Prior knowledge:
GO molecular function: symporter activity
Number of helices: 16
Strand content: under 5%
Oligomer: single chain
Structural class: mainly alpha
Subcellular location: Cell membrane
Organism: Fictibacillus marinisediminis
Order of helices and strands: HHHHHHHHHHHHHHHH
Keywords: Cell membrane, Membrane, Transmembrane, Transmembrane helix, Transport
Number of strands: 0
Transmembrane segments: 45-68, 80-100, 144-162, 183-206, 218-238, 300-317, 323-343, 355-375
Amino acid sequence: xxxxxxxxxxxxxxxxxxxxxxxxxxxxxxxxxxxxxxxxxxxxxxxxxxxxxxxxxxxxxxxxxxxxxxxxxxxxxxxxxxxxxxxxxxxxxxxxxxxxxxxxxxxxxxxxxxxxxxxxxxxxxxxxxxxxxxxxxxxxxxxxxxxxxxxxxxxxxxxxxxxxxxxxxxxxxxxxxxxxxxxxxxxxxxxxxxxxxxxxxxxxxxxxxxxxxxxxxxxxxxxxxxxxxxxxxxxxxxxxxxxxxxxxxxxxxxxxxxxxxxxxxxxxxxxxxxxxxxxxxxxxxxxxxxxxxxxxxxxxxxxxxxxxxxxxxxxxxxxxxxxxxxxxxxxxxxxxxxxxxxxxxxxxxxxxxxxxxxxxxxxxxxxxxxxxxxxxxxxxxxxxxxxxxxxxxxxxxxxxxxxxxxxxxxxxxxxxx
Length: 417
């Protein structure tokens, strides 16, 4: 019993703080918003760390991969995993729609949003997502994918110049270790920050769940729970068997609670990196897959994309049937999952993409935006924690089944000792 309490002490403290915060939110309602600044301190601290952490972790991981060949294998395997889990999430979501229509009987008044919302073209958005016009703009979480691409190029360049790059590679590795230590220091404040955030979250959005969007909640939340426990366990088993499942869930409480409280994939990156290390994922794989996954791998957003599309289908009387429709929804939901930024409420671009591709009027934008707000916590839970199991699957493809199982078994022996 003492060993269990020692192992799970900090996650249990986090869980207790969130329960207390949720109770405060339920009892105090919107007055609980007074606690939000305490949660903002924690969230801002994580955002403060995430930019240098992403740079150092990705650059050092690629620089230490031992050549472009391994880098190519890791990246190729990672993209296969991202696409595979995204397709599974989309298919599961569409099957759920067939069993339970989230828009049946819903009556929502359309409110026309500001005209500026539809002035950003898809081409301009791609340019703004992948690149920045000035080096200083890389140091912002709003340009996360541009920062990731820069970090990848930096790591590849260091690896390609061989011996001359080793001093710089050591600097990058040292920087990565320093940033992870900073994360551990910030996490001492996590119980206060997460508790306060949950109090404000429940106090503000609790009543909303009882309104016109309740059918969407009844559709998405149970489906997210099934995917979280069922399919993540399946993926962990595919990666390294029963031991992989055990080590995955043993280390997932802190990342899960962080994702739920902050509603941010980016803020969850530091905690995910620490957890993946304990799961036995090689550092060069986890430190590439997790930061990149925060932008490109979002099973929760894919499922949310299916919900938004089919919700609008029901409101506007479109027929959700036929292979062509299913394939189109599959592709669009994958795109929605990839273009959404790794920041809270970052789905506006994905929602505009849905409107433009399916021909919905711009007045439908607030409907999709409201759904994003309501499903944000469980969607972020799937988005962020899914990066850990994706890193395990990537390691399985890169290292092989035997190697991954041996690594996980060694971890179990070390813990037992």
